[in-house]
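Example (one chain per record):
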Amino acid sequence: QSRSMAAGGGADGALPELGRYIVARPIYNEVNFQEENERRLVVPKTLRERVQKTCSCSKKKAIQVTKTLLPILEWLPKYRVKEWLLSDVISGISTGLVATLQGLAYALLVGVPIGYGLYSAFFPILPYFFLGTSRHISVGPFPVVSLMVGSVVLSMAPDENFRVLSSNLTGLNKTLIDTDARDAQRVLISSTVSFLVGIIQLLFGVFQIGFIVRYLADPLVGGFTTAAAFQVLVSQLKIVLNVPTANYNGVLSIIYTLIEIFQNIAKTNIADLIAGLLTIFICMVVKEINDRFKHKIPVPIPIEVIVTIVATGISYGADLEKKYNAGIVKHIPSGFLPPINPAVGMFGDIIASSFSIAIVAYAIAVSVGKVYATKYDYAIDGNQEFIAFGISNIFSGAFSCFAATTALSRTAVQESTGGKTQVAGIISAAIVLIAIVALGKLLEPLQKSVLAAVVIANLKGMFMQIGDVPRLWRQSKADAMIWVFTCIASIILGLDLGLLAGLVFALLTVVLRVVEPEGVKILRFSSPIFYANIDGLRSSLKSTVGFDAMRVYNKRLKALRKIQKLIKKGKLKATKNGIISDFGTANEAFEPDEDPEDPEELDIPTKEVEIQVDWNSELPVKVNVPKVPFHSLIFDFGAVSFLDVVAVRVMKTILKEFERIDVKVYIASHLDHIIKTLEHCAFFDDKIKTEIFFLTVHDAVLHIQNQIMHRDIQDPIFEKVGTQTQFCFYSFTSNSLKPDLYEAPEFHLQKERFSLALLPSASDILIPLDLRSLCT
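Predicted structure:
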């Protein structure tokens, strides 16, 4: 039964309230849902039929698969030469000039010779042209990813590993750094990281794991990229100042770097500082002009290119290196290097960092690509993007490049200058090619501080994300906390550990944001349950609910046995005013529990009767009975795709343990085949029935609330408590159970059932529901 209603207009002619959509239906558990809905019989295909379907080939299917793997075959035949070519050429030239300068600048972040930045701006574009699904992103280096690669490079090849002794004419030994060996090792490490990043991305694409990016929420990415911008700023600050510092990496590296920069601030090179500050100021002013007047300026002013040309000319004409000891590029190799094999032996040392880089690089590229795909009404295939970037990084890693993704500023140039397709990207690669082959030598007098300043000027967009925090705080405090926590963690711990910490924190906030009704605990399982993770699941369950159900059961038995023994010995007496100790005798009931942590072995007789005790109130014996703050436990199976035999057996044990301490267990949002698996594994019996399975978590919660409401209405005790000052005892023997009411102070009543084993000769015993005033 389901219906939708929109509130209609009243007699006064008011407009209908169209902003509400109300759905009403019964509460469904597995039993009544199956009764009201006919199951459609689906005959599963045999393995042979599935293999035949997968391996069958037709002309149409072959073309479709080929176009999926090579998207260029889909868009290139539809290319509008007359309408798009001129725009793509202009865009490609503009983007190529920017890519050339950014490639040189971002090489500083990686810690490799500057010329390798040109290779990294050229090679990744070529495979993406054939394999990528975004028409607008500019593939190449990005500061965040470059810095992450640089952290791996600097940690594995620090300067200290390449110190050599050199003797001069005076016979004195001097320690120098073998820069040639150091640079060669760093290039090998960065290219190996790129190669491994490509392998990881390719595997993710082949196995259709593009969904993993969903776990990188916008606040998480915003906080992370802002922290990365701070890391980049500090790493480039020492180049702008041209002060000597060690290369720090890992936890608190940004703090150590800042301390050493300020310790050596007196050694600042004035020529480099002036050049860097002027470059930052000019670039930021012109970029602001480009942004404000983008509708009036046909092509954005390529300020980085202009500043670089001017700075190179000034450095060359004024001979800043010799006169002012300015730090310059010095050497840019012309032409290409032959391809090299990756250092496979390093894979074990860099696998964790490469995994982080692969995810971050992909997330940045896809998020930027989706912005323009939405703007121009086309789709991006997430898994194909993994394949495209994977092959791009494998290919470029063989040519000594560092890992590639896309740069926000470069992509904005490509789109704003009229770029329509990746033809603009391939033309930008041609411009970088010209710089590699012919123009590299002309940039050798360029000051490194100018390149560092270009990097800093391009961080403006990432720093502006700080303005998102107040808006996030108004909209969702949890999202704002994710942003701030990820940013601070990434600054203090480093980018790798910071990203991991932010991801864990974000997932925790998702768990904490689940609104649980009073007395109900909801637990969500986010993976299949099988023999490998079932022990971890039990441990997580105990830590989440705050107690061990079996230990609670044993402790309750222990407490009840002590009460029984003390009453039989006359140490406690049951009266209408409660259970009191004999006057003048020691109250042995209040002796502490001798072994609070170890469940004692109980000699439980066979005959059991039912009593009712408020286990969350103070007991007349000091047995350490853990509190159980809820009466219902819901397992959300929405993400559980299967259970194996071991998991079924353990889940059945868990249900029985909670039932014994009077906590009702429900399972919700399960897949249909889960019930079949449970049936085949003998999960159901006289106590565990299909009625505990509900269509959704909300169905289960509503069922629990209805049960509580029905119990409150039907129970006569609840009608009297609150209006009268009465006290309830249960008088019981081994054969009977009947309630008696006595006058007593008003108390808060919370009932829980428990089975107490009694000796066959037990006489009538009075046990009050609330035992807080049992001793005078």
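Caption: Residues 520-547+628-712 form a domain with the Transcription Regulator spoIIAA fold (CATH 3.30.750.24).
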